[in-house]
Amino acid sequence: MSSAPYMRPPAPDSEYEVGDTVEVFCDHDRKGERVRGWLRGIVVQTDTKMVAVQFRSSVYLTDGWMVPDHILWFPQLSTLIRKPRKRPDVIPDEL
């Protein structure tokens, strides 16, 4: 297929790409308890409107049901998904 000419590159369809690490504000398990907070996951699918994020731990819908495949979908512009924040470096105690 031939490419169409353009004056400048087209804008990217998505801020997120498959394989990106992201943080999502959701209900999840932490140390055996259910909490609501930021949890890291991996983007497994994107399109122009939605982003699918998969997690290693159990995640829950807002009505309390656990999601069996550990995948939550979010709109591209959702405030509940973000690029990961840097964690502060831990400096070991000097001996």
Question: Please, could you describe this protein's structure?
Answer:
There is one protein chain. By secondary structure, the protein is an all-beta fold. It has a domain at 21-82. The protein is built from no helices and 6 strands. It has strands spanning 21-30, 33-46, 50-54, 59-60, 71-75, 81-82.
What's the count of strands?
A: 6
Question: Which structural class fits the helix and strand makeup?
Answer: mainly beta
List the uncertain runs: none
| Number of contiguous helices | 0
In round numbers, the mean pLDDT is: 84
Query: Helices and strands, in N-to-C order?
Result: EEEEEE
Q: Outline, from the CA principal axes?
A: elongated
- Major β-sheet, in short? 6 strands, antiparallel
Q: Whole-number radius of gyration?
A: 18 Å
Q: What is the end-to-end distance?
A: 64 Å
Helical amount: under 10%
Could you tell me the strand content as a percent range?
A: 35-45%
Q: Which secondary structure elements does this structure contain, and how are they paired or packed?
A:
Layout (H helix, E strand, L loop, with lengths): L20 E10 L2 E14 L3 E5 L4 E2 L10 E5 L5 E2 L13
Antiparallel strand pairs: 1-2, 1-4, 1-6, 2-3, 3-5
List descriptors.
single chain, 95 residues, six-stranded antiparallel β-sheet, 6 strands, 0% helix, elongated
